[in-house]
Design a protein that fits this description.
The chain is an alpha/beta fold. It has one domain: Metallo-beta-lactamase, Chain A (4-Layer Sandwich). The strands form three sheets. It has a six-stranded mixed β-sheet, covered by helices on one side. The radius of gyration is 16 Å and the shape is globular. The chain starts with a strand and ends with a helix. The structure holds zinc ion. The site of zinc ion (ZN) has 5 residues, from loops.
């Protein structure tokens, strides 16, 4: 699995691409940055987006969602529990942070814990990790965990926004801490890390029972 990370858009949100080098099929994970430069870059390597995945429904991860859907024609897949963020700007926090009531067409596929999303010969498993939002998920596969705003390098996501739940977030972190230590973590904001590094140094992962 080849992985790219771009952070071109507003609000310092990462866009990740996971790609199958044997078939050229790739998925986008979160849609904060303009598609043009990213598609040019991955196109040079022979990759094509076949699905758009969201880690959760917050505004800063869907800023350019309409552009991505239009230019790729790829189906949007996201957690069923966050799908109402697309129709409710209070839940996506578009109203609160961006001062705009932006809404989107519903997803083509609703995802649930344990589902898999295939692309080429590869797949990512959906791991429900509620807490930052009710429908936050991580995508696990190929030695990677795309953790959205659940787990960051040295930190964790906010739990004070609508639908946030600290106890649920801590339970989700316990689940993530049980992944193999060498799993590469690709968060929704900031630098990449590994599960092992976070269970050693991240206070929320070091003492997941606290
Ligand atoms: Zn968020």
């Amino acid at each position: 699995m080849k992985v790219y990370t771009f952070c071109d858009g507003g609000w310092a949100s990462n866009c990740h691409i996971a790609a199958d080098e044997t078939t050229g099929e790739a998925v986008l994970i979160d849609a904060s940055s303009e598609p043009e430069r990213i598609l040019k870059r991955i196109g040079e390597d022979g990759f094509k987006i076949t699905a758009i995945l969201l880690t959760h429904g917050h505004f800063d991860h869907i800023l350019k969602l309409d552009e991505w859907r239009e230019v790729t024609g790829a189906p949007l897949m996201m957690s069923a529990a966050d799908a109402d963020c697309l129709s409710d700007p209070a839940k996506s926090c578009f109203s609160f942070f961006a001062g705009e009531d932006v809404t989107f067409a519903p997803p083509e596929r609703l995802l649930y814990d344990g589902d898999t999303v295939g692309f080429g010969s590869l797949s990512l498993r959906v791991l429900a990790t509620s807490g930052h939002t009710p429908g936050s998920v991580c995508y696990i596969g190929g030695g990677y965990a795309f953790t959205g705003d659940t787990l960051f390098e040295g930190s964790i996501g906010r739990f004070d926004l609508p639908g946030g739940d600290y106890d649920a977030l801590r339970a989700s972190l316990r689940t993530l801490a049980s992944l193999p230590a060498e799993t590469k973590v690709k968060p929704g904001h900031g630098n990449s890390t590994t599960i092992g590094r976070e269970t050693e140094r991240n206070i929320y992962m070091k003492s997941p029972e606290a």
